Amino acid sequence: MARTIDKRVAALALAMVVTCLLGWLFKAHCTVHGWVGAIQYTTGCYSDAMPFWAGRHVNEGLIPYFQTPMEYPVLTGLQIWIEGAITRAVFGLSANDAAFLGAVTIVNALLAGLILWMFARAGMDRTRLWLWALAPPLILYLGHNWDLGAATFAVAAMLAAQRQKLVLAAALAALGAAAKLFPALLLPLIGLSALFAPGESWRTRIGTAATCTLVAIGAWAAVNLPVALAAPDNWSEFYRFSQARSGTAGSTWEILSNQGVWVTDVAQRNLYASIAFLGGAAAIVGLGWRQHRDRLWVLFTPVLAWFLLTNKVWSPQFDLWLYPLLVMTSPRLKPLALFVIGDIAAYFAEFWWFAGMAGAWPYATPHDILLAASVRGVAMLWLIADAVRLPAPAWIRRAPA
């Protein structure tokens, strides 16, 4: 039996290595001769790491927030600085943007492997483990950005909640929010899980919920407050940048505007997106309450999916926020497969649209983006409906060891 388990673990680890190597090749193949002929769009090899190397002074070793602006939250800025330091230490004077891309990819590969290890340790069933080890979004986004840091915190928080360690879950979710904001959406659900925990007195419930709140605030503040006090303008750049952005080509609001269905400006999108998200999230929690009364944190997945559907910005790599959570909590796997198809289609449709604007081929139109995003959107609505009305997967409902 032990040998069988060891072989399974080895096979999963090998699959993860192959997936990460494919992710590296997908982004790195066009670094040899540089981004010429809009190759970063026609082949989809664009990565934020490449322009960040010089554009955010990573090549000079400037410290984010203190010496150079950074449009990401603090822990992501720290990750970028560390990866830059590794690149300069390893490659010395020959360090360049391609080498930095390698460092970013390696760190993200380690995070992907950590998620796989956490899944296996938590007792996730074999099929779902393979869905992560062979995840197509990892190929698309492993070297694209720095989203796996926050995703790792989000997964760890969910698994802590599954083990009924809600205070730890709150701390991990808050740290995730210090990397990218989306894990903050888990915090209210953790609080509700504590406040309505079955079999506990109201005094215990209120105490646990209060502790979760204080720990979450403390964890987030411990990371952010020193930077905010020392460099307030650069620290707040992320929040100002997010507020001022008009949208991205694959977002619902941009598609509606491009199709002439509902044209909105930035202020209107900020307002309408907030209203739509809050109303939908409340409905998801309300409708899912009876089914998931004992584990309300499971509803983080459909809430995040709804956030992506209603948000004014939907960068392609945001799908990597959702995919590991879908692997964890999706009651059925068919809509997950449709989500992956839509994700791949939307990725290339958006980048081929950029290629068309640069006069390159292949190119896509806003109508192509609409079609691809519609496939992804239908899959997400299906996943949301399943998550609300169906029981959580069996491995989640098993009592933790």
Describe this entry's structure for a reader:
- 69% of the residues lie in helices and 0% in strands.
- The chain is mainly α and 401 residues long.
- The two termini are 19 Å apart.
- The mean pLDDT is 96.
How do you describe this structure in short?
The protein is mainly alpha-helical and 401 residues long. It is 69% helix and 0% strand.
Number of DSSP strands?
0
Largest sheet: none
Radius of gyration: 21 Å
* Mean pLDDT value: 96
N-to-C CA distance: 19 Å
Helix count from the secondary structure assignment: 20
Query: Helix/strand/pairing class, anyone?
Result: mainly alpha
Share of residues in strands: under 5%
Helix content: 55-70%
Poorly predicted spans: none
Q: Helix and strand string, N-terminal first?
A: HHHHHHHHHHHHHHHHHHHH
Give the CA-based shape.
Answer: globular
Task: Outline the secondary-structure elements.
Layout: H1 2-28, H2 39-42, H3 49-55, H4 74-91, H5 97-121, H6 126-133, H7 136-141, H8 147-162, H9 166-177, H10 187-195, H11 202-230, H12 232-235, H13 237-244, H14 252-258, H15 266-288, H16 300-310, H17 319-329, H18 334-357, H19 366-389, H20 394-397
